[in-house]
Amino acid sequence: MSDQKRSAIASTVGTALEWYDFALYGMASALIFPHVFFPQMSGAYGILASFATFGVGFFARPFGGLIIGSLGDKFGRRGMLFFTLILMAGSTTAIGLIPSYSSIGLFAPALLVLCRLGQGFAAGGEYSGAVLLSAEHAGKERRGLFASIPGAGNALGSIIASLAIIAVQQLPKEDMIGWGWRIPFIASFVIGIVGIWIRTGVAESPEFEASQANSKETRLPLFAVIRTMPFNFLGAFLLSIGPNVASYLPSAFALTYLVVNVGVDKEVGVMGVMICNIIKFITIPSAGALSDKFGAKPVFLFGSLGLAALIIPFFMLLNTGEQGYIWLGMFLIYCLCNDAMLGAQAAMLSEAFPAHIRYTGMASSRELAGAVAGGTLPFIAVALQNSAGGSWIPVAIYAMVLGLVAAAGAILLHAHRVAQPSEWNIPVRQD
Question: Per the confidence metrics, is the pTM higher than 0.85?
Answer without folding.
Answer: no
